[in-house]
Fold:
Amino acid sequence: MNFKIVTDSTANLSAEYFLEHGISVVTLFYLLDGKEYPAFNPNNPNTLDQFYNSLKQRPKTSTSCANENSYYEVFEKAYNDGQEILYIGFSSGVSATYRSAEIAQKRLLEKYPDAKIYCVDTLTGSFGQGHFVQKAVEMRANGKTAEDCYNYVLEQRLCMRTFVTVDDLYFLYQGGRIPSLSYRIGSLVKIKPIIEVNTEGKLVAVNKVLSRKFSLTAMFNAVKDNVTDKDVVYIAHGDCLQDANALADKLKAQLQIKNVVVGKLEAVIGAHTGVGSIAIFFLGNKRT
Structure:
C-alpha cells in the first residue's frame, strides 16, 4: 500500500534517498552567531561541509525546531493526494519538534476527520531515526500499511540504542546542555563525557573519561555490551572521519558487525555536539 512517509532533517539521510522514495522532509534550523540556516537544503549538497568548517571557528551555536505550519502543509498535501500519512519524528526528549507535528496532526484531523495519520516519536535522532525511516520504506515496498510501520517503530524504538561522545565541551555549553562551571572544569581536565539517550529520549551522561582514546573505547564497549542485531551499526561523526573509520573497523573485526554505516552527523545535533563528536546507533538490549 502506498502511503506518505514524512520525517525531519534530523534523520541524517541523503536528499537523493528522500527523493527516490518520495519522502517529505521538514527541516529544523541551526544558528551560528545568531544567523539562521536550514539544516536540510536539497539544492546544496555541501551544506554539512560548510557547517563543520564554520564550527571550527567556534561560533555561538543554537538550534530551532520546525513549526506546526511546516508539518501541516506537508500533511494536508498528502491528504489531498489521497494518501495515508506516517510521520517518523525526532526525539521529543531533546526537541519541541515532535510536539509541533502533533499539533499539526490534530489540526488536520479537525479539518479532515477521515484522514489517516500516524505520528510516532522515535526517541532518538540522526541515523537512529533514519533507520526507522528506511525500515518503513522497506515495509511499505513489501505491502505493509502505515499503521503496520507505526506499530513496528513503537515496538522497536527502545531497542535503538544511542550513545554520543564529544571532543569539545564548548558546543554543549553554548547549546545550554551543560552549565558554565561544568564546562570550565571539564575543559580544564579534558573530560570526555559518554552520553546515552534514555527511555524518555533525553540525553543523560552515563560516564566520563579523560582522553579521546578512552572515549572511543567506551563507545566500542557500549556496542559490545548491548548489541543484539549485528547486521548494521551506524556511526555519525562531527567531521572526524579517521576516528569514525577506526571505530568501524574495530566493530567489524572484533564484534563481527556485518555492516557499519559511517557518515557526518547532521547539523542540528552537530550544533550541540560540535567538531570531533561521535554518535553510535544500533539495535540492542531494550533501554531501561
Q: What stands out?
A: Residues 159-283 form a domain with the Hypothetical Protein Tm841; Chain: A;domain 3 fold (CATH 3.30.1180.10). The longest strand covers residues 203-209. The chain has a mean pLDDT of 94. The CA atoms of residues 220 and 251 lie 7 Å apart.
